[in-house]
Amino acid sequence: MTRAVLHVDMDAFYASVEQHDDPRLLGKPLIVGWDGGRGVVAAASYEVRRYGVRSAMPMRTALRLCPQAVCVRPRMQRYQEVSRLVFGVFHEVTPMVQGLSLDEAFLDVTASQELLGGAVDIARRIKRRIRELTGLTASVGVAPNKLVAKIASELMKPDGLTVVTAERVRAVLDPLSVRRLPGLGRKTGARVEAAGIGTFGELRSAPDALLWPLFGRYSAWMRERASGIDERPVLADVEEKSLSAEDTFEHDIGEPRALQAQLARLADLAAARLRMRQLMAGCIGVKIRREDFTTFTRQRAVAPPTCEARAIAAVAAELLGRWLAGNPGAKLRLLGVVLTELNCASQLGLFEQAGRPGRLDAALDEACARFGSRALRRGSAIE
Length: 383
Fold this sequence. Notes:
The protein has 15 helices and twelve strands. It has helices at residues 13-21, 46-49, 59-65, 76-93, 113-116, 119-134, 146-153, 169-173, 186-194, 200-205, 208-215, 219-226, 256-276, 309-326, 359-371, and strands at residues 5-10, 30-33, 41-44, 70-72, 97-101, 104-108, 138-143, 161-163, 242-253, 279-290, 295-306, 332-344. The radius of gyration is 23 Å and the shape is globular.
């Protein structure tokens, strides 16, 4: 049976969720992100993209490009809730699902075709079910491999469905700009174009003498990618290696009590994300970035593994306190809580109950789910 891979990508996911939940935002140039001086764009609606606004752009730049944009702060719990519905749709058609983020995944539907019809029928089913369950649209690329499927999903956004059969791979890829090649990067893409290579077809047929100065020993591999060759399998259920919550401050912070309050807030957020995924952390760390961008990490193993916010905050506070003691007067531009050695809570039955979420955490989770992530705060998170 011919291999069939789908790449499903939700359209402007965070922004679309906000517009769905608040119809007053429909049709308006919408930016999801923190509006502070060092904030960045987490998501941009299609209406604001016309002004050149893109994800990961500094908020100041985005608002300069589109001063009339409406800005809303991210609601990660809500996005995760919708994401679970979307991934539930994926698992309706195949167990071979490789999630890339909350709103994006590869699906190998090769074996599903005998029961559910061809790959295109399965793609249409996925799009229909996502719209029924969430009210949102997704774009899907259907192809013989992951690389071509990902490129295809971008060609007809939003709400697109692009099919590239094995016989049409070169016909579809050859005219495309090399900038569409995943992983090429902005700087490398500019160098490739400066060398006179503007399309996939030109990259595929370029001589080694032209490619070697650009890619070195990866020249043959880049030519294969431009030809649409990709043998990577879809890796189902790729385990999360870590989970974190971090923040870049609008102004550098040097006062230890203010830093500890910020850390307590981030520990609460990271713990909530753990519980949402039904995970426990066996190692707790902090990420510290000074005003000169020098970055430090400190971590400590904990037993039993935990998802309790108070336990995570206590270890993180101790790690930060030790670092501050050795770096008196330091001002920080970024602080984060990093959780690693993650395990499924359901697999930890032998661990003592102290590692499990308490009644306070459960109450906080319920309140935040009903009234938003900023509905309640612990006293330790107040400066």
